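Appendix B, record 7
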Amino acid sequence: ASRRNPWNEVECGDHYARSMASYGVFLAACGYEHHGPEGHLGFAPRLTPEDFRAPFTTAEGWGTYSQKRAGGDQKAEVAVKWGRVRLKTLAFRAPDEKQVKAAQAHLDGQERGCTFAQDGDRVLVTLAREVVVAAGQALGVALSG
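Structure tokens (predicted):
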């Protein structure tokens, strides 16, 4: 300790802090939010929301989130690549800050009942029943404006 800081090791010091700081920027750019026990996942991308795709991680799985916007409509997909993701609610930023008139959810092509509520530009989609999206499956949500 007389020649160097014992808390500044490569494995847990400034290099780790730098990588975690950059990951925080990535999460902010994606508008990522997750609450595992409540089964909640949300995205509000700040970069290219018209055609967006990014990886995400949760405690039990990871995958990709993608969204495309066209004419006031938005199609989003949560595709799990490994593990599983339990979902009850999903949050999105409304397409072009317009009023959403309808929402539909489907898991691997099978429609799942859902309701939605909009508060400003935030849309909260609540699934009728909790779903577990396993590796190789995708949950899609369509918002119509």
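Remarks on this record: The helical segments are 14-30. The longest helix spans residues 14-30.
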